[in-house]
């Protein structure tokens, strides 16, 4: 055990409030008090340090999901937690009648890291779906086509996941998520994934915006080609439509660059960020590139109570500072390559996708949920976004040695999963 792990092993103030009991007891109480939208949680987690977490029964896990691409620097990162604690004990919330130094500094930092052109701006929210809602309202403001004709069409992709609130849900493709909540905000069409001709046919002067994830995370880590992103940039620019990239999952170093779209060499009109941005603390952001797009939403047209509060923005500043100063991006590329090369060599793995530390791999049988269970039993947290697909989105600070423990254990995990069918 490292010093960091030891220093976090004590009882928390919240532990004293809620008491101790077994995982089974917490889960029984969960099922009688929590709404059933998430099904039954896999484990009750009580503590984390770096890439490790522990459950209520004391079992240790290597966290290869990182709270779904959220815990960018792992759990209980000493610098991030100390910045959060010191900000919270100085000034925690001020309302948007006021601003605070961390809010301004974070906006400046994000614009600098993304090499945003002059006139670019930031809006802060508290989650991914809220960042997408802001982007959707931005798209609605791009409403005047040639000769005053309306722009009412918004384009998204088959397989897209943009969040669960009503606006973001209208962009999300999955029928099972959408159908119970019809009617959704209108005007959204879904077109085939990575199909340039389908995009060319869909984008016209009635199009307000095209929403794309550079890599579809929830759909099983499916990357759009650089050619597609470049074509999308050209087609939207020609038609006067906005190109909005949802980098909620892919941004903040997840793919080894600050933004996943950097590889394609394009500048979108706007991007959404959230998951990794606060290093585990809730925060979302909409970045608009250039003065024209940045002035589409004017005073009074959007708002939030908590968005951009001093604590969340301090957490994000600490996260970005650490990623930058500890050379985390280069590390992500190295460990990601290592993991993918190792996965390709495992019997039963048929395809490996993704960049940096957003990795999806397919199996030769529909056993992914059983692999998640067998992984937990063996002390590894992974995720199954589809029946034969496993997703890894570990903390960006995962070491090569930690990755190797998973690669070594995977054949037996796959074996156990297949036997359990
Ligand atoms: C997770 C995710 C969202 C939604 O974020 P929440 O914080 O869960 O609301 C939106 N877009 C993408 C690409 C995501 O991965």
From TrEMBL:
GO terms for cellular component: cytoplasm. One of its GO terms (biological process) is L-arginine biosynthetic process. It is an enzyme of class 2 (transferase). Keywords: Amino-acid biosynthesis, Aminotransferase, Arginine biosynthesis, Cytoplasm, Pyridoxal phosphate, Transferase. Pfam families: Aminotran_3. One of its GO terms (molecular function) is N2-acetyl-L-ornithine:2-oxoglutarate 5-aminotransferase activity. Its main location: cytoplasm. The keyword Amino-acid biosynthesis applies. N(2)-acetyl-L-ornithine binds at residues 164, 304. Belongs to the class-III pyridoxal-phosphate-dependent aminotransferase family. ArgD subfamily. This is Acetylornithine aminotransferase. The gene is argD.
């Amino acid at each position: 055990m490292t010093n960091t792990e030891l220093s976090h092993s004590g009882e928390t103030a919240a532990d004293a409030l809620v008491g101790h009991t077994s995982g089974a007891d917490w889960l029984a109480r969960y099922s009688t008090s929590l709404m059933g939208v998430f099904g039954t949680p896999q484990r009750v987690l009580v503590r984390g340090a770096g890439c490790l977490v522990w459950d209520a029964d004391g079992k240790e896990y290597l966290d290869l999901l990182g709270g779904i691409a959220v815990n960018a620097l792992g759990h209980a990162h000493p610098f991030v937690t100390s910045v959060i604690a010191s900000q919270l004990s100085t000034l925690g919330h001020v309302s948007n009648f006021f601003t605070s130094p961390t809010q301004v500094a974070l906006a400046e930092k994000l614009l600098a890291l993304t090499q945003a052109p002059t006139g670019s701006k930031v809006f802060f929210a508290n989650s991914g779906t809220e960042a997408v809602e802001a982007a959707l309202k931005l798209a609605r403001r791009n409403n005047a086509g040639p000769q005053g004709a309306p722009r009412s069409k918004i384009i998204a992709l088959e397989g897209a996941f943009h969040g669960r609130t009503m606006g973001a849900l209208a962009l999300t493709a999955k029928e099972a998520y959408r159908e119970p909540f019809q009617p959704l905000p209108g005007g959204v069409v879904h077109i085939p994934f990575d199909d340039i001709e389908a995009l060319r046919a869909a984008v016209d002067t009635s199009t307000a915006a095209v929403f794309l994830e550079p890599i579809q995370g929830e759909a099983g880590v499916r990357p759009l080609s650089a050619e597609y992103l470049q074509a999308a940039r050209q087609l939207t620019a020609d038609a006067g439509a906005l190109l909005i990239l949802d980098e909620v999952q892919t941004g903040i170093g997840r793919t080894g660059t600050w933004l996943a779209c950097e590889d394609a060499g394009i500048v979108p009109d706007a991007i959404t960020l959230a998951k990794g941005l606060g290093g585990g603390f809730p925060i979302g952001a909409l970045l608009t590139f250039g003065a024209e797009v940045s002035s589409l939403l004017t005073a009074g047209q959007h708002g939030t109570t908590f968005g951009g509060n001093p604590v969340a923005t301090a957490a994000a500043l600490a996260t970005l500072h650490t990623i930058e100063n500890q050379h985390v991006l280069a590390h992500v590329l190295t460990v990601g390559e290592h993991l993918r090369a190792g996965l390709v060599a495992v019997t039963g793995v048929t395809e490996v996708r993704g960049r940096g530390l957003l990795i999806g791999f397919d199996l030769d049988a529909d056993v992914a949920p059983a692999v998640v269970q067998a992984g937990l039993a063996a002390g590894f947290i992974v995720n199954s976004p589809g029946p034969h697909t496993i997703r890894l989105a570990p903390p960006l600070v995962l070491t090569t040695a930690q990755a190797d423990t998973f690669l070594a254990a995977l054949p037996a995990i796959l074996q156990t999963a297949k036997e359990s069918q």
